[in-house]
Design goal:
With 278 residues, the protein is an all-alpha fold. The protein has 2 domains: 2-57; 60-274, MetI-like (MetI-like fold), CATH 1.10.3720.10. Helices cover 74% and strands 0% of the residues. The longest helix has 36 residues, at 2-37. The two termini are 40 Å apart. Residues 74-263 form the ABC transmembrane type-1 domain. Pfam families: BPD_transp_1 (PF00528). InterPro entries: MetI-like, MetI-like_sf.
Length: 278
Amino acid sequence: MTSSFQRGRHAKILIHIALILGAIWMLLPFFWMVSTSLKTQMEALKFPPNIVPEVFEFMNYVEAFKQVDFSRYFLNTIIMTISTTLLVFVTSSLAAYAFARLKFYGRELLFTLFLAMMMIPIPVYLVPSYVILSRLGWIDTFLALIIPWSTNIFSIFLLRQHFKTIPQELFDAAKIDGLNHLQILKNIVLPLSKAVLVTVGIFQIVTNWNSFLWPLIVTHSDSMRTIQTGLAYFAQAESTNYPLLCAASTFTTMPLIILYFFVQKQIMESYARAGLKE
């Protein structure tokens, strides 16, 4: 018994050591980016490099922010992200409720086709989408950035799986009280799905914040650029100024990191609760 306990304890220690080393390995690039962003240009090119800057050059952030119109890029990205996320909440909740709780002909087949669409790579529908938006006159507008991404199949799938775990007795009681489907969704289903909704929101925020290819294609003017396209143009202009490049990369990444620290508990709860129950 003692030998078995010791082996199990040693195994846990080894697992924790491996996880700690993996975490350090994953954090190392981010640490190096932040460290480089606080160095001078000469120190950034120094070999062997310093792990910690000799003098912390916080003005690199101010200078990088002034090089291009990052304030406009941030505003465009925030508008796109918030609008798309809110629309995904609405469309995904309605679709997921229908697939989870409503019985209609071809429901399973339609849901299977929805999932199959996730297998189609983005480049396949870039040209048709651009042609449609061009004919609608939406190119280089917020409509082109927001409307095509107002639905998300993975969000529908995630919410549908969670909705199926809610006890049927709650729906029966709600129907006895005279609630219709929209009232049931609003008053019962969504309040019980906060953790999953937070996860859907985080996925949408991260996806839209890091979106590069689509904004690059459907926007032409500098005033409509998002943060990632603006960062790409900035990287071309300052390709050899590594401290400024790292400073710009840092302050475009920090909002997502800060957001994650606020909602990580809800994300873990959604994974523990939702699962993939049929």
